Amino acid sequence: MRMLGRTAQNLFWLSRYVERAENMARLLEVGYRMSLTSRREGGASEHLISMLQAAEMDEAFAERHDVADVDTVSYFMMFDPANPSSVRSCLEAARTNARSVRTAITTDMWESMNGTWLEFSQIKPRDVRGAKLAGLLQWVRQSSHEFRGAMLGTLLRDDGFSFLQAGNFVERADNTARILDMKYYVLLPRSSLVGGEIDIQQWTLILRAASAHRSYGHVYHDRYKAHNIADFLILRPEMPRSLIYCANFVQQNLDTLAKLYGRREACHEATENLLKLVDKTSMDDIFAHGLHEFLDEFIARNNAVSETLSESYNFY
């Protein structure tokens, strides 16, 4: 029996919003730390703006703020209710979706989501500065992990689980691509420059944003290199935030839905199209074509997966 489209939609977006809240925290941490380590005149603002560009929030930010500094950017990304992708907006939307599908999720999942929202809603933006901002970003990430742990540990492996997991990894793929793209917005805006000398300290921050700092060292025993870091976050199938890992995981969960419901949909073709982009290529090919251009194409195909999945399973 096929799940109601509204229930499937709420589960898919519940998972996406939880992952997005975590990803906004990760992205802000990268921009914030890059701004602190910048040695160039005006560099701090440039890094923060590049982060907003990568998240496609720069125009919305400019409509509300004249200056991009740590205070204005962190408020916009963390607390601004007018920003639909702020951490506050994501957590509120996730809780709303969870409440709508209380019978389709477990008590542990609901308590985790509800508790996270209630705690976050009590935080006053003016109290979050400097070290406290870093602490809050870490708390958002841990809260996301708690919800995901509750889901993995208590939920039946049925169609609801597949919709939740598909949402999680569609969102995660989008974020990893944007974190990588942010680096090139700052340092390598033209494809002809891709592969040039890279600031190692900033590439280290990229790895930390993806929780890949230590695992990178287990795979590559030499010093940090742009080529290897990009390879690790794009083409390494054992790295759980890499593009190929996410694309594979989305396909696995949609294949499960096809088996449960007895037929394939347009979203399955879109997922195969996404996987083809990363499945049989190399970093040499990607750099030759242009990393920014490659990431743009990946984001577009990933968006197509979400759109066709919505149409295929009546998310309206």
What is the topology?
Blueprint: H1 5-37, H2 43-54, H3 58-64, H4 70-78, H5 87-100, H6 107-121, H7 131-154, H8 159-186, H9 200-209, H10 213-219, H11 226-234, H12 243-261, H13 266-279, H14 283-289, H15 291-312
Helix pairs in contact: 1-2, 1-4, 1-5, 1-7, 1-8, 1-9, 2-8, 5-6, 6-7, 8-12, 8-15, 12-13, 13-15
Keywords:
single chain, 73% helix, mainly alpha
Summarize the structure.
With about 325 residues, the protein is an all-alpha fold.
Total of domains:
1
Tell me the span between the first and last alpha carbons.
19 Å
| Low-confidence sequence ranges | 189-198
- The secondary-structure element order is HHHHHHHHHHHHHHH
- Given the helix and strand composition, which structural class is it? mainly alpha
Helical residue percent band = over 70%
Q: Would you count the extended β strands for me?
A: 0
Q: Count of DSSP helices? A: 15
Mean pLDDT: 89
* Percentage of residues in strands: under 5%
Task: Tell me the major beta sheet.
Answer: none
Cα-atom radius of gyration:
19 Å
Shape: globular
Pfam families: Alpha-E (PF04168)
Domain DUF403: 3-313
